[in-house]
Every structure is written in C-alpha cells, then in structure tokens.
Design brief:
Blueprint: H1 9-13, E1 15-20, H2 27-43, H3 53-56, E2 59-63, H4 65-75, H5 80-95, H6 116-129, E3 147-154, E4 160-164, H7 178-186, E5 195-197, E6 200-204, H8 206-209, H9 213-224, E7 235-241, H10 257-266, H11 270-280, H12 282-286, E8 290-293, H13 310-321, H14 324-338, H15 348-368, E9 383-384, H16 398-405, E10 414-418, H17 425-439, E11 444-449, H18 453-467, H19 478-487, E12 494-499, E13 528-534, H20 537-544, E14 548-550, H21 556-566, H22 576-585, H23 590-603, H24 607-615, H25 619-625, H26 641-656, H27 658-667, E15 675-676, H28 685-697, E16 702-703, E17 709-711, H29 714-726, H30 730-744, H31 753-769, H32 777-792, H33 796-813, H34 819-834, H35 838-856, H36 861-876, H37 880-897, H38 903-918, H39 922-939, H40 945-960, H41 964-981, H42 987-1002, H43 1006-1024, H44 1029-1042
Parallel strand pairs: 1-2, 1-7, 2-3, 7-8, 9-11, 10-13, 10-14, 11-12, 12-13
Antiparallel strand pairs: 3-4, 3-6, 5-6, 15-17, 16-17
C-alpha cells in the first residue's frame, strides 16, 4: 500500500463470485465444501455475528441442481446449514420413487422418470420455509444482499438462457417466479417434464452449461464492465465448486436417439469447461484469486438420483477437504474472502481505474518529494471537498508552486490565489486539494465556500461534524470551535481552502457588524495551512500579505489544451485558423472556452460556425449582460467572452427546452453554490433530468457527486440575472422563486439534515432580495421555516432574531390573536427557553395559552397543545414540578383527541417520565414507561428509535433500583435493535453498549464488561481517532474499571 493512496479497492471491495455445478444429489458435496469454508470464515470473526454466503459473494451462478442451490443461498439468502437440510429433504422426496423405469415410450419419445409435481411441491416448501412466497418474482425489484442467476436451456432453440434476480442494461429478463426459475434450471430431460414460462419452454440448464463458470464470467462482465469486458482486474475472489467427477457411462444409441443426436452434442463436461477456463485464468489462480474445488475420487459411482448414498457423498467430500493440498487452497480462499468489507458497487470499474491513476501519480510525486519529512503523522485524516476531481484539468504550474510551500519549515500559513473571474482559480484549488490528499495521507482537507456568511457558517458546521467537535453548548459557535480545535498541536496536519473569498467586509473587523471580522476565526498552527481563492487583490493582500500567487492569462498552448480536453470531436481542432480565432475572441479564458466547447459538443457544429455565431451577437446585448462583472481591465476593449458565450448558448437552450430555461432563471435568484434540485418548480422526473442534462451539457451548471445538487459559476449566474433584468422579468422570477421555496422547503428531519441545511442559504438570499415584499404570506412562511431549522441546528440566537421579525410582520398581517401569529409566538418562546431566558419563555407561552383558549376554547386540541408546550418550557427551565402537573393534564386529553399512538401523546408521556426520574419517582416512571413501551411496540414497532429509547430509559431505572437482570434484558434487546436500525458504529449503538457494559460490571461480570467497553473504544478510534472527544468519553469508564482507585 502506497502512503497517501490507501489500500487497493480490490482488496476490500473487489468482486467475489460463486459458480455452482450441476450434479443431482451430488450437489450435497458442493454444500459440504461451502459449509467448511463458511465455518472457518465465521470462526475467525471477532464478533458473534454468523455471516452467510450472501454476505460475502456479490454474484451467484448455478446450473441444474447447482442453480437450485444458488437460488437458496443467493435469492432466498439461506445459511449453509439450513440449505443442506432443505436440499437433502428435497432430494429424498423427489428421487425416492420413480414413475417410469424406462426413459422412452413405445413411440420413442422421452418421458419423465420422476414426478415433476413432487419436485414443484418440494421447491415450493423450501421457498415458503425461507419466508418467501413461491409466486414471488425472481427479480421483484427489491434490493438483495447479492445477485443470483441460474442457467436453463430453451427447448426450442437449445440456447442457454439466464434467469436473474436483477436487471441487466439493454437486456430483457423473463419475468420468472422463484419457483419457475428453480424448476427451469433443474428440469433434467429423462427425469422431469420441461418447464413453461410464459410461451417459452425450458429444460435442464446442464445441457448447455453444467459447469456455469463461463456463463458466470460473461454475466459478471455484463454487470460490472459492460463496455471494456475487462473483468479480471475487478475480481477479488472467484470460487467454482463442482459435484465430483462422475463415472463415464456409455449410452445406448437405439434407446436414446434424441440424446445421441442432440443432447450429447450440446452437453458440456464440467471438467473440460474447467480446463478451458483455467487456461485463461491461470495467473489469477496463481495469485490466489481463482479457486476450483471438486471432489476427485469417491463419487464416480454415485448417480445423480442416488439420494440414499448421502453417507458416501459426505465421506468422499470430507476426505477431499482433509487432504493437505486442499487444506492449503481452502485456507488461501478463506484469507481472501475474509478481507471483503462490503458489496461491490456497479461503478467499481471506475473506482479501480481512479485508484490506479492515483497510484501512478503518487509514485511520480514520491520521486520528487522528500522521504524524511519530519511532519508526517499516522493519524487518520478528515476530508470534505464537495466536488469530484476534474479529469480535464490542465496543469497551470500553480498547484506545484503552492504544494512546494505547504508543510515545510519557515513557510507561511496562508496563501492567496488571485485572478480574474473565470480564469480557473477554483479548479486549481480543487486539484490542490486532491493532490494534497494523495501526497499527505495524514492531512485533513476541508473546503469552505466564502461567497457569503450563511454558506460559510454551513460549511463550518460540516467541518465541525467531520472533526467530531461537539456543539452541545447552546452558546458555542462552530467557527470558534473549529479554530480552537485546529490550533491544537495534537490535531495534526490540515489544509483549509476558502473558495471565492471576494468580499472584504466579511473579513474586516467591524464593531457594528455581527457578521464581520472573519479573519479572527482563522486557526493558526505550524502543521496547518490556509489557501484562499479571490478575485480581489485587496482581499488577497489582507489575508495572505505577500504570499499571493496571481493567476496570469492562459497562453495559446494551454488554452488549446483546455479546448481539446473539453471537446468530444477532436478533429474540429484541425481547423487551426478557426481554433486560434475562437480562443482570441474568448481571451483564453477557461470558463468561456469550456462553455464554447459545450455548445460545439451539444450541437455538433464546427469551430468556424461557432465563431460566426459569436460575431453575430449585438454589442448592446453583450454590454447589458456584462454589467457588474467588476474585473477592471479584463477585456482590453473587446467584448466580454463570458457574456457572449452565455448568450449564444442561452438562445439555443431556449429553443430546445422551456424547463431548462425556467431552471436557469430560478437559479439566478438564489445562491450559486449547492443548489438543491428539489427546490426547483415540480416537473416529471424524466423532464427534470432532461432539463438538467441540457444545462450541464452547455456547462451552465455542474452536478455535485450526490447527484441532487448543482453549482453554477458566479459569472454565469450574473449573466443570467442581467438578462432577466434586461427583459424586465427579474422581479417576477424572484417572487416566483420565493413562492417555490416557501412551498417546497425541506421538512425538518434529523436523518435528512444536509438537505434542509443546504436550503437555508438560498432561502435567506431570496428573503433578502424580496425584503420589500415582506407582507406576503409566502415571505412570512419561508422566514418561519428558516427560523425553525435554526432551532433544530442549535443556532438559537439567530432563530430568536428571525422569529422576532416574523412576529412583528405576522401581527401586522394577521393580527395578534390569529393562529399564524400564535405559531410564531410558540417558536419564539421555544428559542427563549432553550437559551435559558426562562421569564420571557414562560410569559410568552402563557400568552399563547390565553389567546388559544379565547379562540378555540379551553378543552380544544389547540389549547391542549399550548399547555404541553408550556410544560416543555417548564422542564427546560428546570421547574419539573409545574412541568409534571401540566403533563398530567394534557396526557388524558391527547389520549382522547389524537390517540395513544400519536407522536404528541408519546412526547407528553416521555416528558412526564423524565420529570419522574428527576424526582426519583422510579415506581411511577417504571409503570408509565412500561405502558409507553407497549404502545410504541404496537404502533411504530420494536425497532423504532422511540421504542428503543424507552427501553434504554427503563434499563436506567432498573439500574437505579438494582434490578440488574431486568436492566440487562432491556439493554440487550435495545442493542440488537440499534445495530439493525443505526448500524454497529452509530453513537446510539455505542451508548447502549456502554450501558450494557455497566450492567455487566454491576453484576460482577468484569471480563464481559471490559471486552464490550474495549470494543466501543476500538470502533470510535477507527472512526474518529484516539484523541477524539467521543473516544475519550468511552475510554474513561474502562480506565476506571481496569484501574480502580
């Protein structure tokens, strides 16, 4: 593993494939081999979880009875032991009685020797016992842990057909049920009737592929490397399991005319297939990535229907597995599989190629970088860069200039990259981020957009999250906490990139401004560095003093390189005169060049034709679009290249797609970065994708790697806004976007925090642009939405300010006793109580109750809700007695009005339970918790976070009462639920593990407690590092346990 690159994705997430031969009852041998493999794999796991084959293999392929086993293991996700039991029972029930002793009738037609109805019934029983229905489709569209296909043979064409549990691009899959697929692959001629699926008829897949290894190879290529067909570099472990070498019995040509003329010609001997395959995969076999297991001796005389010879199959297989050669090979296979960390994604080929490219780049860098760097550390790094690497980046030497000055002795801590808008500063900084990650494995890299205070605040919160900084204190600010954390020597190496730091007022110290003075929040450390990109020389010098790198205009050679990288048809560059003329028109500006290339690509035009289009644009239109571009002396008395390329492309977009035009106009009214697609005007998904695709194809927008957000260059947005202004539509679009955001603002959902966090800057932007329209209901509604998100995000002072503004507007718009106004009052009271402003919170809450009672009546649901909110305020401000008194009032009302399963009822009960626990009323808390637990299990289920939260609460009560066994039972159940719901590494899971360890410790089970607390520390150390506050928090109880004072 190269330092800075990380392990190869092949080692941890490469493809693991399993091929299963056909062979009737001898399929038991395949299962016994697989059982030995899985037993050893599970015995070496540190946890007690027993994994199944579907947890390791990405694709199962089988034929005949091997196909039946593939369905059991892959589609039905059965364990090996239950599969062996089901398989042996199925073989016995199917082959115990013949219905015809002769495989042909008097007319010479082949007839079935065994009862096909019995086979179908046996398969249906297996499917039902596994928890599925026989009528369930093989491919039901639901996610599965692995992919499964089986081979069958078309009776009409004698071609192998694959029946799949998943879709394959550009290929139609038969809609077979699980039962039909199992029957089709195992319906061997002479033994069973053919199987019909729709209008097609199938017989045993073994006629075309008794060893399906080549079918598996082709199928995997169809899924993971459709174009290149280069499967080998993607395969981590390919396992092929046979059913033993059968005896070679001669056939009677007269009795089996059909077999001799047709089927024998088609049948493929498993081991001859293996020899062909091994010739091609010999290097992979030597590299311990391909394994073939097949019992060589002892199964020759076991006929495929001889179910009574189970003991013979077992003895021969065990003898094979205990041979020293096979022990070594099986051990190598297990070592390979045990390193598998996760399933292989569909785009894994791209992942491998990117890793190889990084490795090559790293090797080059290593030759020029000092190997005895005293600043290297082994600590895991953090990473937050919201953009994919630009594969078309053209080296400008700037990255190397900055890189050479990073992390060396006597170097500056801050650098500024200064240049005109559209000249490529962001792309340079982006390449710097990726190269830094490759060069310094221990370096945390964070990207912060400095376009405005709100975007920067959001970015700081994300950085705090990635660094594991707790924001529990209501008065703490993310910027201050990040500064303190990064300034510590123990933090290690880091790089901050502030992109688009153009506004000097954001950085200057200003006593009258609450949002100024950002320079004071910059961390300082001899292991850290800060890079700014800016259009302002004044900002560059203020932030970086003399360490400013100015980006000069591209020369013609590099400009041609950018154009070539951006063009699909490189042959248009053969027109050298038009190429040079175009680049001069665009002043060699990268942004304009990319936009021009996008137009040429989309419309398949020549460079000469595009130059004519540019020259045809009217100067007055260009002048209008160029307003506020702010870069003095940029164009040297020629026409604005961004504006002219924008206008040329925009006119084409207007003709192509109205929705794309609407989206562009909408984006001109919000922030230019991190724009949520969900905020756009609603449209059918196909139309939406088409519109975004068009904007992207013209380089007007860029998709982020979440595929749900867009970025727009500042100059593109400015040109769009100027165009709207020129046609008199800007105000109309701003109001349209205001109403869209008010209607489509993301709901508060902790699991979807990133969505509504990203929406806040856009909401504040449109609120600011339409401030004169603040009497509109939509304006007020959006303001409230932002305030409520601030509450959830812990930004209480900002929420209070917005709620206060909203209250003033609402009282003017609706009146002081209108429900809308009371809703604003409730939010404002909540912001007061969380900040500890008890008197204000209680006074305002009481006013809400009085007004609500006047409007709706004292017994109304609205009045009950107002009372509960007051009880919540009381509990937050520490008055638990009054909170308890109000809870007792509202709970009966909620039970009557909204029912026991309502979230409001459950919240009120939880509030009351907390007051009981605070007062030591454990008996009351216990009784109420048990009732609440019962209701939650029935209404939302045992795995719902509210249910498991009550379980943990109950356990804490029992711990206080020294009812340790009962506490242990609740914690064990809650822990299993948390692992299923949150995953083993979630803080809720770790907290529950800590509580369970405490329960064991109190019962004297020190070894179990120490082991569990050690596991907690290991998980947090891997996730956050050994110095992280979360790791320290879980380490303290272990130190007390192992080193008692």
């Amino acid at each position: 593993m190269a330092l800075g690159i990380g392990p190869s994705p092949l080692d941890t997430n490469g493809l693991c494939l399993l091929s299963l031969d056909g062979g009737g009852v001898r399929g038991l041998s395949s299962l016994l081999i697989l059982k030995d493999m899985m037993t050893q794999l599970n015995s070496e796991r540190e946890d007690s979880q027993v994994l199944k084959p579907c947890d390791f293999f990405d694709l199962f392929g089988g034929t005949s009875t091997g196909g039946l086993i593939a369905i059991m293991l892959g589609r039905l996700e059965m364990g090996v032991d239950e599969c062996i039991l089901a398989y042996t029972e199925l073989m016995k029930s199917v082959f115990s009685e013949k219905i015809n002793n002769v495989p042909v009738d008097w007319s010479g037609n082949i007839v079935s020797q065994y009862d096909s109805k019995k086979l179908k019934k046996a398969i249906e029983n297996v499917i039902t016992r596994a928890g599925f229905s026989p009528t369930d489709l093989m491919n039901d569209g639901k996610p599965c842990r692995s992919k499964t296909f089986v081979c069958t043979t078309s009776k009409d064409t004698l071609q192998v057909t694959r029946l799949r549990s998943y879709p394959v691009p550009n290929e139609t899959t038969l809609p077979a049920t699980i039962c039909e697929a199992a029957l089709a692959t195992s319906a061997a001629t002479r033994f069973f009737d053919s199987v019909s699926i729709g209008n097609r008829h199938f017989v045993d897949g073994a006629f075309g592929a008794n060893n399906p290894i080549e079918e598996l190879e082709e199928e995997a290529a169809d899924i993971w490397c459709t174009t290149s067909r280069g499967l080998k570099p993607l395969v981590k472990c390919l396992v092929s399991i046979g059913t033993g070498n059968p005896a070679q019995l001669p056939m009677d040509d007269n009795a089996l005319k059909f077999l001799s003329k047709t089927l024998v010609r088609l049948a493929t001997k498993p081991e001859s297939t293996e020899r062909r395959f091994m010739a091609r995969w010999s290097n992979e076999a030597k590299g311990k990535r391909y394994f073939r297991f097949n019992v060589e001796q002892g199964l020759q005389q076991v006929h495929m229907t001889a179910y009574e010879k189970q003991s013979v199959i077992e003895s021969a297989t065990y003898a094979y597995l205990h041979h020293s050669t096979q022990k070594v090979r099986l051990r190598d296979c297990i070592l390979n599989l045990s390193a598998k960390e996760g399933k292989t994604s569909i785009d894994f080929e791209t992942t491998i190629r990117e890793h190889e490219a990084r490795l090559a780049r790293h090797r080059i860098l290593q030759t020029v970088h000092s190997s005895d760097d005293p600043l290297r550390h082994g600590k895991a790094s953090g990473w937050f860069v919201p953009f994919e690497r630009n594969p078309r980046y053209v080296d400008r030497e700037v990255v190397d200039k900055v890189k050479r000055r990073l992390f060396v002795k006597n170097r500056a801590e801050r650098f500024a990259i200064f240049g005109l808008g559209g000249i490529g500063k962001t792309q340079i900084a982006l390449e710097l981020a990726y190269q830094t990650r490759e060069l310094y494995a221990d370096c945390a890299v964070f990207w912060l957009p400095a376009v405005d205070m709100e975007s920067l605040q959001q970015a700081y919160q994300t950085v705090a999250d990635r660094l594991g900084i707790s924001l529990d204190d209501k008065n703490e600010d993310a910027k201050s906490l990040v500064k303190v954390h990064l300034s510590k020597p123990s933090t290690g190496r880091w790089l901050l990139i502030f992109d688009n730091a153009d506004d000097i007022d954001m950085w200057l110290e200003n006593k009258d401004s609450k949002t100024g003075g950002l320079k004071d929040y910059l961390p300082t450390s001899d292991q850290g560095a800060i890079v700014f990109t800016t259009r302002s020389n004044k900002v560059a010098q203020y932030l970086a003093a003399t360490d400013v790198i100015q980006i000069s205009e591209m020369d013609e050679h590099k400009a041609i390189h950018v154009l070539r990288n951006s063009l699909v048809d490189k042959e248009v560059l053969n027109d050298t005169e038009s190429t040079r003329k175009l680049l001069r028109r665009l002043t060699f500006l990268p942004l304009a060049i990319v936009q021009a290339a996008s137009f040429v690509n989309e419309n398949r035009t020549t460079l000469a034709s595009y130059v004519q289009l540019l020259d045809g644009q009217e100067q007055n239109a260009i002048d209008l679009l160029s307003e506020d571009f702010e870069d003095e002396g940029r164009y040297k008395s020629i026409r604005n290249p961004v504006a002219i390329t924008w206008l040329t492309s925009f006119e084409q977009i207007r003709r192509q797609c109205r929705l794309a035009t609407d989206y562009l106009c909408s984006m001109a009214c919000v922030k230019e970065k991190d724009i949520l697609i969900s905020l756009f005007p609603p449209a059918p998904i196909v139309e939406q994708q088409k519109a975004i695709g068009i904007l992207s194809s013209y380089s007007f927008v860029r998709m982020r790697h979440e595929d749900s957000r867009l970025d727009m260059h500042r100059l593109v947005q400015l040109a769009t806004r100027n165009w709207l202004q020129s046609v008199g539509s800007l105000r109309e679009w701003q109001l349209h976007v205001l109403h869209c955001l008010a209607a489509r603002f993301p709901l508060v959902d902790l699991l979807n925090r990133s969505q509504w966090r990203a929406a806040v800057p856009h909401a504040l932007q449109i609120l600011n642009l339409t401030a004169s329209e603040n009497q509109l209901p939509a304006w007020l509604h959006l303001l409230q939405s932002v305030a409520s998100r601030h509450i959830t995000d812990g930004r209480y002072r900002e929420a209070e300010k917005l709620y206060s503004e909203a209250l003033e507007i609402s009282e003017t718009l609706y009146g002081p006793e209108d429900p809308n106004t009371l809703s604003v009052c409730t939010g404002l009271a909540n912001s007061y109580s969380i900040q500890g402003k008890s008197a204000k919170a209680i006074k305002l809450s009481k006013e809400v109750i009085e007004k609500t009672t006047n409007i709706y009546g004292s017994e109304s649901l609205e009045a009950t809700r107002a009372l509960f909110r007051l009880s919540f305020v009381y509990r937050q401000t520490g008055d638990h007695y009054k909170s308890q008194e109000l809870c007792r009032k509202v709970i009966p009302r909620f039970l009557k009005d909204v029912g026991p399963g309502s979230p409001e009822t459950m919240d009120a009960i939880y509030n009351l339970i907390m007051t009981y626990i605070t007062h030591g009323q454990f008996s009351d808390a216990t009784a109420l918790s048990l009732q609440s637990l019962d209701i939650n299990k029935k209404v939302v289920g045992a795995d719902h976070p509210r249910t498991t939260g009550i379980m943990v609460g109950m356990a804490c009560i029992y711990m206080e009462q020294w009812r340790l066994k009962e506490a242990e039972a609740f914690l064990t159940e809650a822990l299993e639920s948390h692992k299923r719901t949150y995953g083993p590494e979630h803080p809720e899971t770790i907290n529950t593990m800590g509580c369970l360890a405490r329960a064991w410790e109190c019962q004297g089970q020190r070894k179990k407690a120490i082991a569990l607390r050690t596991e907690c520390i290991q998980i947090y150390s891997q996730l956050y590092g050994s110095d992280h506050w979360l790791t320290a928090r879980v380490r303290a109880p272990l130190e007390e346990l192992t080193n008692p004072k």
